[in-house]
Amino acid sequence: MTNSEQGLYRKAWLLSLFTIFYNVIEGLVSMHFGYQDETLALFGFGVDSFIEVLSGIGIAVMILRIKRNPESNKSIFEKTALKITGAAFYILSVGLLVGIIMNLISGHKPETTLWGVIVSSLSIFTMVWLMYAKKKVGRKLDSEPIIADSNCTKVCVYMSVVLLASSLIYEITGFAYADVIGAAGLIYFSFSEGKEAFEKAEEKGCSCSCH
Hints:
This protein is an all-alpha fold.
């Protein structure tokens, strides 16, 4: 492994650590205020933050293994990381679907969505920067798992936009279900990304057996 590659893997590892710690804090804060203000959108957003944590952990472990075994076949580690990211997308899809059903069945209106506006605004700026930083490193390393992880972050950006829009609409109009259509679109997107991650994992498996 060259010094340049070592530097890139270190950067990718630091980005994965930031992903983990930021989303743990974001998830706990969102779940707390979502429960306190009785808003399912914010609470569900907090739960989904831990999906990003799962993806971040998968990438962090993969990078450590590659650094400790630079001469080993990277495809084995990357295949595992891709499967973890793919599983995270599928879990995200199920979580969004459950959130939609709960919103439709309960018909419950939150006390306020002010914290939804605050959390989502901060998340948009943070996740956009993180998404591009991951994608840049992933392309330089030609690492499909890191690029797939950046796509997971992209889903979080879209979710933040949905949360911000729905929170603002509720604060202005009192309409509690503005995020249902947007969340349905996110289910399709996250499921597609999960499927793509597993397909790339299979391609890695093929390249291993071919070698």
